[in-house]
């Protein structure tokens, strides 16, 4: 993983998580390791009861670092 950012809407109703990865293989490796941790699986089931998830894999077309 290169970076992860969490954004909250100003009205407090939404949270957006954005992660930047080196490549798709790094995402797959993380998911595989994550799924093998029983405590994380239990935690995510609790989170899933509260949230709606949408996931997308995208390509960076421009990035500006100040």
Give the tags.
66 residues, alpha+beta, two-stranded antiparallel ribbon, 2 helices, 2 strands
Brief digest:
The protein is of the alpha+beta class and 66 residues long. It contains 2 helices and 2 strands; from the N terminus they run E-E-H-H.
Explain what this protein looks like in three dimensions.
By secondary structure, the chain is an alpha+beta fold. It has one domain. 35% of the residues lie in helices and 18% in strands. The chain has two helices and two strands, in the order ββαα. The chain has a two-stranded antiparallel sheet. Strand 1 (3-8) and strand 2 (15-20) form a beta hairpin. The radius of gyration is 14 Å and the shape is flat. The protein starts with a strand and ends in an 18-residue tail after the last helix. The model has no long low-confidence stretch (mean pLDDT 85).
Largest sheet, spatial ordering of strands:
1-2
**Domain count:** 1
Low-confidence stretches: none
Strand content: 15-25%
Layout of SSEs?
Layout: E1 3-8, E2 15-20, H1 24-35, H2 38-48
